[in-house]
Design goal:
alpha/beta; TIM Barrel; Rossmann fold; Immunoglobulin-like; globular; binds beta-D-glucopyranose
Length: 766
Amino acid sequence: MKSTKIYLMSILMLFVLSVIAQNKPLTSDLKMKVYIDGLMKKMTIDEKIGQLNLCGAGDITTGQTASSDIGKKIREGKVGAILNLKSVDKIRDVQKVAVEESRMKIPVMFGMDVIHGYQTTFPIPLALSCSWDMALIENSARIAATEASADGICWTFSPMVDIARDPRWGRIAEGSGEDAYLGSQVAKAMVKGYQGNDLTRNNTIMACVKHFALYGAAEAGRDYNTTDMSRLRMYNEYLPPYKAAFDAGAGSAMSSFNELDGLPATANEWLMTELLRKQWGFKGFVVTDFTAINEMIEHGLGDLQAVSALALKAGTDMDMVGEGYLTTLKKSLKEGKISEAYINQACRRILEAKYKLGLFDDPYRYCDANRAKTEIGTDEHMNEAREDATQTFVLLKNENQLLPLPINGKIALIGPMADNLYNMAGMWSVAVDHHQSVTVLQGLKNAIGNKAEILCSKGANFVDDPKLDLIINNTEIPTIDPVRTPKELLDEAVAIASKSDVIVATLGEAAEMSGECTSRTNIQIPENQRDLLKALLSTGKPVVLLLFTGRPLDLSWESKNVPAILNVWFGGTQAGNAIADVLFGKVNPSGKLTATFPQNIGQVPIYYNHKNTGRPIDSGKGGWFTKFLSNYMDVSNEPLFPFGYGLSYTTFSYSDLKLDKQKLTSGGKINVSVTLTNTGKYDGAEVAQLYIRDMVGSITRPVKELKGFQKVFLKAGESRTLNFTITPLDLAFYNSDLQFKAEPGDFKVFVGTNSSDTKEGNFTLE
Ligand code: BGC
């Protein structure tokens, strides 16, 4: 055994020497290997285990534990990385301890939840995905990386690429919705935005793909809950965005909280080693989610020593805050429960990440105080955030062209979101400076000047229940009005609204009603706010509902009774200005939903790319209920707003769908063309969407699958021919042997404005 090792080492040395002798530069991978081999030779087992430990700094604690004595641990070589320490000065001080006072002088990695921007905060991820604009999304991640790295951060816990089809799950806000194709494009764009082409540059940061895997399918939409899924669904519908992110070069991954096949992801060797490393060839490292190792005790897999050993052996490299690795691995090694090779492997992967980030060349690479002063929250970034936000809003209804509003007369701006700084940025805005946020009131004032009058009133609390208020309120500033009763708030608002020409009602979820641990069983606008909406409507004035939400809501009542609904999600620091841009028509809305809005909670999970049943209902024939067909007695199968839906101030028509051929051969391609015309009065952008349906397969296939989209800007009256290409690769799927193949046969192709409203053609794959 020993002699084999010596033999292999000598071969490697000979190879290195021969490369040097030939004057050829070492490949970067080989250089890294040589460097890390050298380092690891000098490290004690305790120091190696220390690298596997991620300590939490700052006030953000989402688990049951917080880290302590971090300085002492760094000196002792017991910290590999730190999470959520904010500011370049603090990070420099801590790095100094690591590289000057610890024996091995190994730099620490500083990670943070930079989820949708840093100090310049962009719309929440679900909103960003509704832009369907990959360049925009990539650029938002680029700006986030520039700002975070200017403040000392070199690693972000983003992108979250979990497919989510259940709006009860509040974390649907953190991802890109329900579709694997779109989700994969977004995943790639985010990784490129964060990491750029060169991770060693001081303005790029390492991405961490989370939550691996299938976290978005937690049962009943309850956070941290169990996931149980067939391999077919996994491979075809849930795994593609993770794979796309890894293929784009993401440097790290985070294990999810959920179990899968009876084992939490953190201890799931199939997931972390077989799939991730062996099948997909991932070369980075895996960090747990917050205290996920410790939580396996509650899952019923043994004590801390046992679950830590399980996680390490599964292929999980770094332990977030729980210190299971730090406190038990040496004991497990002594007792023969793990081998040193596992520790070496995890330690090597983490050191490699530091190497790739350039931390060994310069541990202070991300600690340029000058950059912190000049590159964070700049006007340029804020302008970008404003423009981006306008692209994410989704116009859900616009009866009689109530929007855009003219800038004149009296505008009543009513609701708890109207003038609340803390509510603009949205969940997971760890580095935002709320005082830089622009409220709706401020945004409207900026746009209006003295051309119109704004009458503003709160009208309602976010919620009237003090217990719930405390949960949704992480600013420690009570949002329940301390002076006025709910009735007084409502009366005041109605009185003001009665004097206006138009009412803009800013209602919906408070920012902290989505994100982590915000599952809801009722996905309507809170009742007290709906009462306000009803009272405003009863004034007889036209009402625009400006909807704030982090998830699809049940808007069945609102969609029938309110003339205009503009969904603005949480638009980030510049939301107020962006809202004014769209309300007054400076920007024409073009966002399209990436998660289906149900008619009611009972339809959930509801998503456009479902399978057919053997008894499908055809609502065209005989209405929405037929006995012994697959339907509900009390509501149709249709969603309230389908995937891909979103209106514009103008109208678009699709005509002349053509395929350049009827038969697709392997290695060939089909061109699908369609004429898109802006038939309305405003210039505007449209997201044209292409779907396919595989009519007969060796396994059942979805009724529709997104396979292409184009966001096109057309002047009023302008027409353009759009071309889409379909190749056999677009038709491939994982069959029951988990082989990724396209099967010959008939296909339908659909192009249109959303997943339910399309023109249709067909072709055959030979
Ligand atoms: C969340 C992760 C996050 C981590 C660190 C966890 O509770 O699930 O998404 O990255 O905390 O803050």
